[in-house]
Write a structure and sequence with these properties.
By secondary structure, this protein is an all-alpha fold. It is built from 17 helices and two strands. Helices cover about 75% and strands about 0% of the residues. A hairpin with a 2-residue loop joins strand 1 and strand 2. The protein is globular and about 60 Å long.
Length: about 400
């Protein structure tokens, strides 16, 4: 109920933002009013996925303020919202880029990587700078470590945070960002894998080899992570970190990006197989999502439900126009800064403005409502001032390289 109220509140705020932005011709309205409806529902879906992560961390902060533990308590729905959002963000990347690999086989990788960096980097670095300034403010802007130690801790964050330390200058940057940046590190590992993945995309039967390869890499990562404490394998913490990254990377290549890859590879088959159900697709998608979010004790089956719902969205389900509505599409347009910013806004509200001391639930809900309003407003400003200009530059590079760009995260 509370999650639904937060969603309705955010959509209402988005509608108000649209009214305010209506006078800014050429800035944002053409994005939320596309001339083509092809894959438009995926843009709207991105906004809902970002809000799911926002709601998950709102619940985490409540329990953190009550008992000092980062948890969603007994709530199955709030506990699943993060996985619900993140898994489908990975589905989106896998789906879009695999389709391109299937059509073209190869991409000009130099231009591709430049376009991706121009698309993803500026907003990330703006939000990272705010998070770091927040951390340094907590330390009174005093250097608490050596300069070399500071640079060593900063470097992984500059490289999109894969394997980054939780603390910089003895301040918990991971808490400030709500830990969301790890997904960008995996995105870049996926992008770096594309030249190799092109071989698998040329023939559908090669998906079996793809699954076998990443299954073996997952097992190897688990072995390295566990075996680094054994004398024969022990070479220090670096092996554990490498093993952990390899295991997570392989896992998401199988069930994250791999889910989108499977839908892209079987898209035409799915149209045939699911044709008897397609007249019910707008009922089935919310039913599948709801089942994933509220049924306790499902893991593998839940992932299947989630992937099936995503496949139906790809095949045209828009939940009776909900995903293609202008307010929801606006949420999709600003979803990237929303995703990166929300943890910082929560941190300021909860930690610096008195939220960590215990609050009553009504007072906390009011505080979250204020946070969501600030998050959407700041995300819109960052989109207009930072993301939109760099997105246009990225699109020019992407068109030259013939790579997907419009709704890639």
């Amino acid at each position: 109920m509370l999650a639904g109220a937060l969603l309705a509140f955010a959509i209402g705020l988005a509608a108000l933002l649209l009214l305010a932005l209506g006078r800014l011709k050429g800035a944002i309205c053409p994005v939320v009013s596309p001339v083509s409806r092809k894959l438009t529902s995926l843009e709207g879906l991105r906004g809902i996925l970002a809000l799911a992560v926002v709601a998950h961390h709102a619940c985490c902060w409540f329990y953190f303020s009550q008992c000092g533990v980062w948890t969603t308590g007994p709530h199955v729905l709030f506990g699943r919202l993060a996985d619900f959002g993140v898994a489908q963000f990975f589905y989106l990347s896998g789906f879009l880029f695999w389709r391109k690999l299937m059509k073209g086989g190869r991409m000009p990788m130099g231009k591709f990587y430049i376009s991706r960096f121009v698309r993803i980097g500026p907003v990330y670095y703006v939000c990272l700078a705010v998070a770091l300034l927040t951390g340094f403010a907590g330390a009174g802007f005093k250097l608490q470590v050596s300069l070399s130690g500071l640079m060593t801790s900063l470097l992984p964050w500059i490289l999109f945070s894969q394997g980054a330390p939780t603390q910089v200058n003895h301040e918990d940057i991971l808490r400030i960002t709500a830990g969301v940046t790890w997904t960008l590190g995996l995105e870049w590992l996926f992008y770096l894998s594309l030249p190799v993945l092109a071989w698998f995309a040329r023939k559908q039967w090669r998906l079996a080899i793809y699954a076998l390869l990443f299954g073996l890499l997952f097992l190897a990562g688990r072995f390295l992570r566990a075996g680094s404490d054994v004398g024969a394998v022990h070479v220090g913490g670096a092996v554990q970190i490498a093993g952990a990254i390899l295991a997570v990377y392989a896992k998401f290549m199988l069930v994250g990006f791999g889910g989108g890859i499977l839908v892209a590879a079987l898209e035409e088959n799915l149209r045939t197989w699911m044709k008897p159900l397609m007249h019910l697709r707008n009922w089935l998608v919310p039913a599948l999502y709801l089942a994933y979010l509220v049924i306790p004790g499902i893991s593998a089956v839940g992932q299947i439900l989630l992937l099936l719902a995503f496949a139906m969205v790809v095949l045209g389900a828009d939940i009776f126009g909900f995903l293609t509505s202008r307010p929801v599409r606006l949420l999709g347009v600003i979803s990237y800064p929303v995703y990166l910013l929300h943890g910082i806004v929560y941190f300021w509200a909860m930690h610096n403005l008195g939220g960590v001391p215990k609050l009553s639930l009504p007072a906390y809900i009011a505080e979250i409502a204020g946070c969501v309003a600030v998050i959407l407003l700041l995300a819109t400003v960052i989109h207009l001032l930072v993301e939109r200009p760099t997105m246009k530059a990225s699109e020019r590079i992407a068109r030259a390289a013939s790579v997907p760009q419009e709704i890639a995260p």
